[in-house]
């Protein structure tokens, strides 16, 4: 809360200890957090001071100046807290949020799937000892040849164009916001990790999935740092902003919606990392191409697991699952980093997405292809035994990819000027959208 006191007015007023005490009560939470012991001492001091001023029955200049300074300080701190709160908030407003939309009785479905998940989902994880690690692709800082290896890496990456760097940085930042994605999975009813070390199959999956994903941002981050081509401080600020903002994929703590979302997302990241791999090769950076390909392979494995879960849900509850699928598609699958911000560009995510689209890393057509793939993967067209609402959802979802492609075709055919804008991630160099 900001203090609404005007220091100029305060300095001309006669103060009572009551006035000051009320000002003290408006002190910022930051002050309370910073020091509990000393703040109560400070309060006592202020009250004493205020009493003295009141008792002096007139305005002593020195005392009023002290008061003025103290209140000004409080005002400044309160303003600081206000700005701090703003800086955590995303640049765009979050819609009204729906929570816990799955009927409670359906939690039983997920409980009954525990054994199935152990046998069918956990098998898609890789044991740590057989997993690749970022170090397998990076110069070894403990070796004598480290400097030479870094030079080689920089040599290989020097032909990478700025627009590609913007897309790779955006992909890396998306991977780095992993704490948010684990939080999302752990807000889903019936499958969340209740303790942080729960032995249920769902919880084991979520932790191990997170641990596998953690290597993606780690590797891309270290690689980009070593190239010397990007502004790491701006990138790091964007990561901090993004994790602070969270995400709002409209999955409503509902694991039906959540697993449809993750199925879609894993395939989207499989496609985009696959495309950055292809482009890195074209730009002569074979190491980067290998890195992106390796990450894409992980995403594919994760896609297999999540689509299997939804396939099982279609088997157990076809009507509920098709309604959830249609619901998710009507709301649009928002990308996980949709609240991205670098402290400068309020449209950073839109601008990054526009560059990714122009380079063919992730396009509207890919979105429609993913939808088409999932419709086929879950055999949606042949789904039977649905309610009338279920059949409407089935028709909607089955026809949606073609409609998106038709619309995209029309937009592509339109003559449009593409602006060029600066990206802080590459020292404000200009990139065409
Ligand atoms: Fe990933
Ligand atoms: Fe992933």
From TrEMBL:
Protein location: Plastid, Chloroplast
Cofactor (UniProt): Fe(2+); Fe cation
Keyword S-adenosyl-L-methionine set for record: no
Classification via Gene3D superfamilies: Ribonucleotide Reductase, subunit A (1.10.620.20)
SUPFAM superfamilies tied to this protein: Ferritin-like
CDD domains assigned to the protein according to its UniProt record, in alphabetical order: Acyl_ACP_Desat
Amino-acid positions noted as binding Fe cation 2 in the UniProt annotation, renumbered to this chain: 213, 266, 299, 302
One CC-aspect GO term: chloroplast stroma
Broadest EC class assigned to this enzyme: oxidoreductase
InterPro entries on file: FADS-2_CS, Fatty_acid_desaturase-2, Ferritin-like_SF, RNR-like
E.C. number(s) listed in UniProt: 1.14.19.-
Binding site for Fe cation 1: 175, 213, 216, 299
Primary localization class, coarse: plastid
Record-stated family: Belongs to the fatty acid desaturase type 2 family.
Name this polypeptide is given: Acyl-[acyl-carrier-protein] desaturase
Gene source species: Tetracentron sinense (Spur-leaf)
